[in-house]
């Protein structure tokens, strides 16, 4: 338990170290989720359009 | 191209998670504290990889912009657009983690020195690139104008890289140089290189996802998309 506390305290720099890692996680995860959401939306839209287009021909 | 990106993505994701886990474990738990900076130096494991990626992604963006302008390759244009938001994210991470490292070490969140200012300019280049694309009506002229902006912005990259040598600054000089013996101990260097690899993989995975989305948006009347749609029972 005390080992864990020591690890989390980062030699007194806990605020700076964990804020950095936290913000980085948030920003990078946001990009990952945004990209995969865009892919999902583009897929549904493109699939619908492509099928419509072919049925017209 | 679409199929290639689809097949490659899961492998990149798995490798990225593995290197990230190894890098974080070795960097945060195993590596010793720095004798001058204590544990605060551990920010290096995200700060330096993010800063390198901010420049690497920009070079990819500028190179593919040039390829697009010269050979009219559409996929080069797609790679450039897909890279921009990821590069902007890495730049933001480099700036923010730099701030959180600067405060305890230099006593300030921000100084207007050459390194920090040119890195901030890089963020504005990414955002300007995306804004320019959004602002122009015709996709052709948007691609062309944005490509030119990306190429012109390349002058900023050597400025960022050499700024710590050209001007006196609070920012410490490069931690790793290819030609010298590295100034870091192997126990600190190994996690750093793993984190660089993890960030690279994160970029390429993300790039594959975004490239697929953009191909679908542009080719939404192609017959191969219709075939794919039928295969997926949509």
Which helices and strands occur, and which strands form pairs?
The complex is a heterodimer of chains A (57) and B (234).
Chain A: H1 2-9, H2 14-56
Chain B: H1 2-30, H2 44-71, H3 74-106, H4 114-135, H5 139-152, H6 156-166, H7 186-218, H8 223-231
**Total helical segments of chain A:** 2
Tally of helical segments of chain B: 8
What is the number of independent domains of chain B?
Answer: 1
The number of distinct β-strands of chain B equals 0
Question: Alpha-carbon distance between the termini of chain A?
Answer: 69 Å
- Compressed to H and E, one letter per element, the order of chain A equals HH
User: Level of helix content of chain A?
Assistant: over 70%
Q: Describe the global form of chain B.
A: flat
Q: Which structural class is indicated by helix and strand composition of chain A?
A: mainly alpha
Relative helix content of chain B: over 70%
The value of Rg of chain B in angstroms is 20 Å
Low-confidence region ranges of chain A: none
> Outline of chain A, from the CA principal axes?
rod-shaped
**Main sheet overview of chain B:** none
Number of domains of chain A: 1
Q: What's the pLDDT, averaged over the residues of chain A? A: 88
Provide a short characterization of the protein structure.
Chain A has 57 residues and is an all-alpha fold. Chain A contains two helices and no strands.
Structure description:
The complex is a heterodimer of chains A (57) and B (234). Chain A has one domain (2-56). Helices cover 89% and strands 0% of the residues of chain A. Chain A is built from two helices and no strands. Chain A is rod-shaped, with a radius of gyration of 23 Å. In chain B, helix 3 packs antiparallel against helix 7 (186-218). Chain B is flat and about 65 Å long. Chain B contains eight helices and no strands. With 234 residues, chain B is an all-alpha fold. Helix content of chain B is 76%, strand content 0%. Chain B has a single domain (2-231), classed as Four Helix Bundle (Hemerythrin (Met), subunit A). Chain A binds chain B through residues 7, 10-13, 16-17, 19-21, 23-24, 27-28, 30-32, 34-36, 38-39, 41-51, 53-54, and chain B through 28-29, 33, 38-40, 42-43, 46-47, 50, 85-86, 89, 92-93, 96-97, 100-101, 103-104, 202, 206, 209-210, 212-214, 216-217, 219-223, 225-226, 228-230, 232, 234.
């Amino acid at each position: 338990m005390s080992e864990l506390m020591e690890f989390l305290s980062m030699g007194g720099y806990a605020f700076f170290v964990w804020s950095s890692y936290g913000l980085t996680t948030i920003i990078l995860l946001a990009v990952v989720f945004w990209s995969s959401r865009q892919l999902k939306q583009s897929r549904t839209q493109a699939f619908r359009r492509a099928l419509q287009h072919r049925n017209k021909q | 191209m679409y199929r290639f990106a689809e097949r490659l993505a899961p492998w990149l994701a798995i490798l990225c998670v593995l290197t990230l886990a190894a890098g974080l474990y070795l960097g945060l738990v195993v590596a010793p504290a720095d004798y001058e900076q204590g544990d605060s130096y551990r920010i290096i494991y995200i700060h330096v990889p993010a800063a390198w990626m901010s420049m690497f992604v920009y070079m990819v963006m500028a190179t593919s912009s040039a390829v697009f302008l010269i050979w009219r390759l559409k996929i080069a244009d797609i790679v450039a657009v897909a890279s921009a938001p990821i590069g902007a994210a890495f730049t933001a991470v480099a700036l923010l983690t730099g701030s959180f490292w600067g405060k305890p070490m230099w006593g300030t969140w921000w100084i207007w020195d050459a390194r920090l200012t040119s890195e901030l300019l890089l963020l504005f280049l990414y955002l300007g690139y995306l804004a320019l694309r959004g602002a122009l009506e015709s996709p052709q002229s948007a691609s062309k104008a944005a490509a030119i902006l990306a190429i012109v912005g390349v002058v900023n990259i050597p400025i960022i890289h050499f700024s710590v040598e050209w001007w006196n600054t609070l920012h410490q000089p490069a931690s790793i140089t290819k030609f010298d013996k590295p100034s870091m101990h192997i126990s600190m260097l190994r996690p750093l290189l793993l984190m660089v690899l993890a960030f690279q993989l994160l970029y390429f995975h993300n790039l594959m996802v975004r490239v697929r989305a953009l191909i679908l948006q542009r080719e939404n009347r192609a017959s191969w998309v219709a075939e794919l749609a039928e295969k997926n029972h949509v």
